[in-house]
What does this fold into?
Amino acid sequence: MMTNWLLIISALALGLALIALVTVIITSRRQAELIERQQQRLLMLTETASEVLQLREQFKQSSEPSDKTDFAQQKAVAQLQQHVAQLTEEHKQLQQKLQEVAEQDPGSKLYQRAAKLVVKGASTEELMQECDLPQAEAELLISLHKKGA
It folds into this structure.
């Protein structure tokens, strides 16, 4: 009778551990997607800022303008400088957000690494060694990847 209870409790504990693992994996995937989207936005902002700086240099290198053209160019340069300042601020904010997201859950980095290894075709034993995972978790990661593929 006592062993039946122990088996039931063990099964429940294993079930809860698997649910927790699945939750961590789903959360880490969402964080990875968020980081990827933010990196893409950061790249776009960097490219835009580079283009704005190139336009600014072109304005500076233009030939001797008349007074009206000079005023228009000065106004355009001022607008470009304001735009560059806004882009720089957004760039800083995105970098800060990326850092915060990356530091949020250090434990999820282990599962992100394990997930990458699974995608590359790592075996259960490789996952256990490389990521210091128990066999059940390594097998679960591999089976989840097979279901998602």
Summary: Residues 35 and 102 are 8 Å apart (CA to CA). The first helix runs from residue 2 to 61. The two ends are 43 Å apart (CA to CA). The chain has a mean pLDDT of 81.
